[in-house]
């Protein structure tokens, strides 16, 4: 399944807040559409539907394909520790997500574009792979090119983030981010029940 390129508002109306996907928020519905949505809430939902929704929220927030998410799940299942936590850590430590959490990009798709266009340096070297797995003590900054600096400066100026998660540090002038440690559960930026995601894939394998 390819990466989603459709309406982002449509997804957040269906799945709830997805800060990594878009800064927009869903609008309040009225009339017939509002009635239909309220009516659908009273329908009995299966356990499968709950698991599927959480899996979809995880996938669309981080902007990855179904194949990529399943690959991360298999890695997490083989690793030491709780599968759900390891899965979240793998996703959170992606370079595109780190840029988003630092405020260097407005969304994860925006961060992916920065990386793909070779605007980002990791430890002084250009990295153009959004899925690059960041490690503790990695230093992330823009290239010396004026365009690269301007893109990141504009994103930081418009960012509403005032407090960064403790696994990240942002230095200003020049703008650069430092990965302090592997993220813990409290630092995850998405409200998600990862246990349901693990159960979803466990029933698939």
Automatic annotation (TrEMBL):
RNA-binding S4 domain span: 93-157
CC annotations in GO = chloroplast; small ribosomal subunit
Tell me the superkingdom of the source. Eukaryota
GO molecular-function term, one example from the UniProt record: rRNA binding
Sorted alphabetically, the Gene Ontology BP terms of this entry are: ribosomal small subunit biogenesis; translation
Q: Which InterPro entries match?
A: Ribosomal_uS4 (IPR022801), Ribosomal_uS4_bac-type (IPR005709), Ribosomal_uS4_CS (IPR018079), Ribosomal_uS4_N (IPR001912), S4_RNA-bd (IPR002942), S4_RNA-bd_sf (IPR036986)
Keywords per UniProt: Chloroplast, Plastid, Ribonucleoprotein, Ribosomal protein, RNA-binding, rRNA-binding
Q: What does this protein do?
A: One of the primary rRNA binding proteins, it binds directly to 16S rRNA where it nucleates assembly of the body of the 30S subunit.
Subunit and partners: Part of the 30S ribosomal subunit. Contacts protein S5. The interaction surface between S4 and S5 is involved in control of translational fidelity.
Concerning HAMAP family, the annotation shows:
Ribosomal_uS4_B (MF_01306_B)
The entry's protein name is Small ribosomal subunit protein uS4c
Gene giving rise to this polypeptide: rps4
